[in-house]
Hints:
The protein is built from two helices and no strands. It has about 70 residues and is an all-alpha fold.
Amino acid sequence: xxxxxxxxxxxxxxxxxxxxxxxxxxxxxxxxxxxxxxxxxxxxxxxxxxxxxxxxxxxxxxxxxxxxxx
Length: 70
């Protein structure tokens, strides 16, 4: 199993100069646009999505069907 990636760069200032521009936050983006995606997913919502998913289909390369995720 693959674990989380490890980055030697802990802060924006520790990045090489050529990458700082790519990873610098864009100040013109309103941070409130992320508020809905940061709300925790409730158990009822998760079960509703799983129950409405196609049967005998796997959501990814694991080949474990949606039905086994419950």
